[in-house]
Amino acid sequence: MNTPMNNQQHQAVMRLQHSRLALASAAGATEQGEPLGADDGHHNSNGLADLLNHPMVALAGQAFKQMALGHPLIASAALLGDGVKQGATRTIRRHPLLSIAAGLAVGALLVHQRRRALALVGLYALPSLRSAIGQAVSILLSKQTKP
Known about the structure:
The protein is mainly alpha-helical. Helices cover 73% and strands 0% of the residues. The chain has a domain of 75 residues. The protein has 6 helices and no strands. The protein is extended and about 75 Å long.
């Protein structure tokens, strides 16, 4: 009952073995004790680390860094950033609950301001404009679908 495998069966068995090895590797062990990707033909990627080591990304990063360091306001921004960081750190350590409450208040203010900005545009304040736009769009779509 031991018949030789054809090429498709052999490839299916190899894919199954590779998927089992990948699962075992994710669980922390492999059958041979070697890391997955050592000699099985799969590329073992480190994701973002591989991307950051790419020469084009490194070149773009260097160009951006030179541009940012050459900006005329970089010294002022660094000085202001350090002062704000020290003040915020001191305040957070002394009054952690007050800091959480301030964060909630700032978040609520941002949500409220967003609603006011949208009202100025007319998305909340003018429902008739919204319905008129909807009707115009439906008329245009119905004209396009008719032969």
